[in-house]
Every structure is written in C-alpha cells, then in structure tokens.
Amino acid sequence: MYRFRVKAYTPETMPLKRLAQYLGPLAELFGVEGVHLVDIQEGSHASALLVDEAFRPEVEMRLAAAGSGGGDPSAERGYKKINALLLEDNTNGAVDAPDGAEILYFPGAKAERPRLRNIRQPGTFDGVVETLGGPNEWVPVGVRTFEGEKVTGFRAQRELIKELASKIYEPVRLSGDGYYSRGDDGIWSLDRFNVHSFSHLEDISISEALSRARLYGRALPTNIVDLVRGEQSDEVA
Fold first, then answer.
1. How far is Cα 85 from Cα 99, in angstroms, rounded to an integer?
2. CATH number of 116-203
C-alpha cells in the first residue's frame, strides 16, 4: 500500500473536513480509478492507499514525475494543491511506496522562500517627529506612532529637514517611499523610508487618538474615552 503522510497531524488530531481537503488533490495526483483509501495509520497522519495492480505502472509514472513541472498536468495540479495545504498547516508531507521508501516529498512550509529585498512602495506615515539630525545628505528622522511606538529607518534630505524642524513634537503626515525586505519566515520589514514631503495634522481629539491606537491592535476598554475625559476634568478642577 502507498502511504500519504502529513507530519503535523495524527489520526486523532486531523479534522475530518481538513482530511477531505487533502483527499481531493491526492486523487488528482494519483489520477486513476483503481485507488482506494483503506486505512488511516498511526504516527504522522498517514492515509493508506491500495492501488489495483492494473493501475500500478501508471501511478508509479505519475508520482515519479510529479513536482518536476514536466509531469502529467493533473498530477502537477494535485501536487501544487497539496503543497499549498501543507503550507497553510505549517508542515510538510510525503508519499511512501509499498516497500516503505519515500518516493515523493512535499516541502510545504519547509520550502525555501526567495528573499526579496529593497522593494519600493510609496506610502504615508502619521505620527510625531521627535528627533532630527545627522551629517549626511539624507538625515535620520526619529518618529513615533500615536500609540507611542518608536519607528526607525525614516530619513529626509536637508532642505526638507529645515522645514520639518518647525513641526517637531507635532502630529504630521510623512509621505514618501518605503523600502521593504521579506525574510525567510515570510515576514516583511521596513528597511528605510525616504520622506519626500509632509503635511501638518490638526491636533487630534481623544476619540481619534484612541481610534488610531486600536488600529494598531491595542486592547482598550470600551468606556476609555469617558475615563480619560473624567481625568482631564479632575485636572482642570
């Protein structure tokens, strides 16, 4: 019997609905009528598949070429779909031959992702400028979000720095080009942000400031606005 293994699951932890999502592409991969699911085996989740003798040569040929890009189109589709499911499940998998040898590997989440660097994306940033300075043509700009998080990598040319100096510690919108990289883990990070222009933002209200804080995922009480207003009233009194 052939065995299709998903390493992140056991028979006890594989949801039935997820198993069904794997079995569809697996049927595409094997591609013949004479394939039967006869057992769910222990260890990593392993679907044991019995292939009728008459179909064995065709199945062996399909599995041998799958993943190469030159195999049967339906087998290639099945291979890619299984890999995508494994990536979602943050795991990998394989097909074992009846003799126990691994004959087809699905890298899934283990696949090497190409590093992407210096990807330019125009954008804006709303926050507060805290520091300016440096000897180079591109001068570092120290900024902080409205929720208080310090963000690095911002810079502007000297002529713009002169104008920004009048807005230090005031809410501003910085416009320019961000340059991003994607790491091996698939997470994007900001390398630098070249500021080309800015605009002054009005002094934002309590409600607006807290709304922006929520956009950053900060958990806040539902009555926080009333609480803050109450504290301000006490200070005035």
1. 26
2. 2.40.50.140
